[in-house]
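Subgroup meeting minutes
Present: P.N., E.W., G.H.
Scribe: E.W.

1. P.N. recapped why we're keeping a running log of single-chain structure predictions: easier to compare across weeks, and new members can see raw inputs and outputs side by side.
2. G.H. added today's entry (355 aa).
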Amino acid sequence: MVAEKFKKAKEEAKAQVKKAVAVSVTADMWTSMNMDAYLAVTCHFINEGTLNTVLLGVQEFPQAHTAANLAAVKASIMEEWGITHKVTSLVTDAAANMLACARELNLKHSVCIAHVLNLMVKKALDQTPGLPDLRTKARKLVSLFRCSTTAKERLVQMQLHLGKTHLKLLQEVETRWNSTFLMFQRLHELREAVGATMASLQTDTSPLTSEEYFYIGECLGVLSPFYEATVELCEEKQVSASKIIPLLKMVDHALSEEMGKKTSVMAKQLAEMMMRQLREKMHNLQSMSILTLPTLLDPRFKTLGFLSPSKGNEAVKRLTSECAFIISHETPPPTAQAVPPQDEGSSTTGVFCPM
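Output recorded in log:
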């Protein structure tokens, strides 16, 4: 029964993809809990004004992760789904083998901006003095409530006693920075219940101090714009290319405001490091046609979406150049020609007028 449902769903998905004139493909490597490598390939396209997403496959990938092997598997998947000549771009992380794979397939490549943000924030979290130790202490505290039945039940009871909604603590996942934000956010939200519960437990796990909760609260203010940007960019039902640069410009503006509000050295150092990295990335992103031209053509943004006015002007010049090239290579339209008069009684008009 499962096999039949899978076959039917795949046939329906193929029929949907077949209607697409052009598609964008995203690909990513990931490892299962059993340490088996998999390659996931997804395509995105617009049909009747609606953005659609179809998972083309998640295949086990036991071979070496070379560009040639990746290109061979992706080419096979694209051929199976009939999109080989429809692919306009390939979106992956910035790994060297993925970049080489795009060249191997002769496809225009774009780096996943959500992944770029992930690496940027992870680097800042790891390099901000004092923050790695605070994260380690928070992880141990969360683990206590996720692994101990007694601690978990007492936390539930304490939340009910304080008139709070029952919420679970969230653990950080090493490969996803937003899990750090969510772990800190939930700990900060439940700090009263967690503190009261810890006082009733006999454990070697150290509770967070009021000063540490203050640091967490300040860091959350710095991390919040990046979290919201990541969520926005991962939206599957909205085209995101045109809003990447304006969105990062808004993150930069929010960081500038947060830096003026923070009093702790930890939060200020985190904000400064993230702003420095963000501006370095934006300098490069604002020079990429695959991102700047959509921003320029989006009536919501145009040149206002750029952090750097000079980069906006450069984008205008590139767009003008591309339009001039297209116009110069277009076949001139046929000129109107006079048609000899028809015999009397004919219903055909005497002159052909092109629409």
